[in-house]
Amino acid sequence: PIVAVRPSVLETRPAAMAPRVNGFRDADGRLSMNAHQWLGMGAYASLVLGFYLLQAPAVEDSTTRLALEICYGAIALVAACAFVKAAAVDPADDDDDDDDEAGLFCQLCDRNVHAGSKHCRACDKCVAHFDHHCKWLNNCVGARNYHSFFALVAVVLWQVCGQMCAGAWLLAWVTRNPADADALLDDDDRFPSHLTRLEFQAALAAYLLLCVCLGYLVGDLFAFHVLLIRRGMTTYEYIVSRRDEEAAAEDGRGGRDGAGVRRAHWKAAKGGDVLRCGCSWCGGNRVGVGDEDDGDGDA
């Protein structure tokens, strides 16, 4: 089959446009990172620094403290590697086989692509088994990097939840035991910054707020993709099915049984509607209902 592309799309596509290499490199191979990447890396760096500056020094036994610091560093390294792999991979569909059996032809790429591929406007290339374009990675998520993307989300969620629990316990302990907290903060080897108890409490409260925000965002995304995996769907397939069901509902054809059931399932999974939630970790990157059409060169 040939992918139908509206003439207006082909006419407005810049002739000099070339596809991005990955989340770090533009079409010319130059370093090209967006604001979402820098914001995400800054938030994660704050999460890591908070552990080493606020939480780890509170552990009294030096051997236990060192073991925790090493284990935490290993977890942070796994998350960093997953991020780099997901962003550095080129997710393009590189099907150069002339045999288009069970495949599609993309008029924008001017070549055959696999069934399930989709042409991404941001990357300007067809992505194999397209899931969604993630601004936090500055890259599309597809067959080549979905596993590293999901591993990143899972590891960061586990990390944030653990630090949130530890931070809440530490803040409660400092509040209930002011004398012991003052003695802890006076230890130059563990807290060389000489924070006062009130300053330490304020820093812990700010750190907990960061953990809560990250936990909500990453937890929402994790729950959404667990639901998709259980259904055997991609993000894009989910959005398209929602769009079709809402269109059918407007026409009075099965809206109650289709979109209503799907929305109820998702609300039961996360307690909200992911497509209406602007705070989702990839909320700005998920394809909103009506945002994607045949003009993107869907394959």
- What is the number of beta strands? 6
The total of helices stands at 8
Gyration radius from CA atoms, angstroms: 23 Å
How far apart, in Å, are the first and last alpha carbons? 9 Å
User: Proportion of β residues?
Assistant: 5-15%
Structural class: mainly alpha
Report on this model:
The chain has about 300 residues and is mainly α. The protein starts with 6 loop residues before the first helix and ends in a 29-residue tail after the last helix. The N terminus and C terminus are likely disordered. The strands form three sheets. The chain has a two-stranded antiparallel sheet. A two-stranded antiparallel ribbon has the order 3-4. Strands 5-6 form a two-stranded antiparallel sheet. The radius of gyration is 23 Å and the shape is elongated.
SSE diagram, text form:
Blueprint (H helix, E strand, L loop, with lengths): L6 H6 L22 H21 L6 H27 L14 E4 L4 E4 L3 E3 L4 E3 L4 E3 L4 E3 L4 H31 L1 H8 L11 H35 L3 H16 L8 H12 L29
Antiparallel strand pairs: 1-2, 3-4, 5-6
Helix pairs in contact: 2-6, 3-4, 4-6
Question: Can you tag this structure with a few keywords?
Answer:
single chain, mainly alpha, 299 residues, disordered C terminus, disordered N terminus, 7% strand, elongated, two-stranded antiparallel sheet
At a glance:
With 299 residues, the protein is mostly helical. Helices cover 52% and strands 7% of the residues. It has helices at residues 7-12, 35-55, 62-88, 146-176, 178-185, 197-231, 235-250, 259-270, and strands at residues 103-106, 111-114, 118-120, 125-127, 132-134, 139-141.
